[in-house]
Amino acid sequence: MKNIICDIDGVLLHDNKLIPGSDKFIHRVLEQGNPLVILTNYPVQTGKDLQNRLGAAGIDVPESCFYTSAMATADFLKHQTGTKAFVIGEGALTHELYNAGFTITDINPDFVIVGETRSYNWDMIHKAARFIANGARFIATNPDTHGPNYSPACGALCAPIERISGKMPFYVGKPSSWIVRSALNHIQGHSENTVIIGDNMRTDILAGFQAGLETILVTSGVSQITDIDKEPFRPNHVFACAGDIDVV
C-alpha cells in the first residue's frame, strides 16, 4: 500500500472551493488505509486551520494528516545548532518554532526565519538584513513569490533582504526535497513506496522527482499538458483532476 503526499491548492481546492471529485478521492484513500500527508508550502495555517478549511469544502480529514512548510522549517532547525530566531511570519510559524524549543527574539539571533505575513514592514527588512549580514543564518519557509491574485508570498518577502544582505536563504518548502523527506519522516514512510500528487511541475512534481517519489500531475491547477514539455523531467502519471486518479 502506497504512502500518498497530496498538495492542496489546485489539487483539492480552488481558493476555498472544492475541485469536483477531490473529496471522493481523499475519502477513498482514507478508507483504503493509505498513509496520507496533505502537504502545503503555505506556513500561515496550523493543521487545525487546514482541517477546518477542507472540512468547510466537504473533505473530512484528520488534523494529523496535514503537514506545512512551518512544521518542516521547525523540523529542519532541530537538526541545526542554535536556539534563537528572529521571525517574520504569522502565529502558526512561531507556534511550531516554540514547540521545537526556539526562543523568538531580536537580540543576537542564530537564525532569521521568513514566512508569509501581511504585516511586513521596513523595520523587519532592516533587522533581518542586519542580522544576516552579521552572521545569522537565513531560512525561508518556501520560495513561492505570490499566491492567488498576485498576493505577495514568502519568496517576494525574502527578495529585499537578499538584496541588502547579499545572502540567499535556504528554502525549506517545495521544490526542495527537504520538505518531502520531512513529511515522510512524519509518517515513518519511505520514498520508494510513496506517490506525490500536485498541480505544479516546478514545485510539487520537481520536489517529488528530486526526492525519488512516483509523481502524479493533475491539470486542475497551475500546470497544463503543454507545460510538461517545458521541463527536462516528466511526471509518472497525468490526470485531469484528483477524482480521475486510478493508480493508488
Structural notes for this entry:
The chain is α/β, with parallel strands linked by helices. 36% of the residues lie in helices and 19% in strands. It has helices at 22-32, 47-57, 69-78, 91-99, 122-133, 154-165, 177-186, 201-210, 225-228; strands at 3-7, 13-14, 17-18, 36-40, 66-68, 84-88, 103-104, 111-114, 137-140, 170-171, 194-198, 214-218, 237-239. The strands form three sheets. A six-stranded parallel β-sheet has the order 5-4-1-11-12-13, with helices on both faces. β11, α8 (201-210) and β12 (214-218) form a beta-alpha-beta unit. α3 runs parallel beside α4, α3 (69-78) packs across α7 (177-186) and α5 crosses α6 (154-165). The N and C termini lie close together (8 Å). The model has no long low-confidence stretch (mean pLDDT 97). Its cofactor is Mg(2+). It comes from Shewanella gaetbuli. Keywords: Carbohydrate metabolism, Hydrolase, Magnesium, Metal-binding. GO terms for molecular function: 5'-nucleotidase activity; metal ion binding.
Q: What's the short version?
A:
The protein has 248 residues and is of the alpha/beta class.
Determine the mean pLDDT.
97
What series of H and E elements makes up the topology?
EEEHEHEHEHEEHEHEHEHEHE
Cα Rg = 18 Å
Distance between the termini: 8 Å
Note the beta-strand portion.
15-25%
Find the count of extended strands (DSSP E, 2+ residues): 13
Gross morphology: globular
Strand order of the largest sheet: 5-4-1-11-12-13
Discrete helix count:
9
Structural class per helix/strand content?
Answer: alpha/beta
Unreliable parts: none
Proportion of helical residues: 25-40%
Largest sheet: 6 strands, parallel
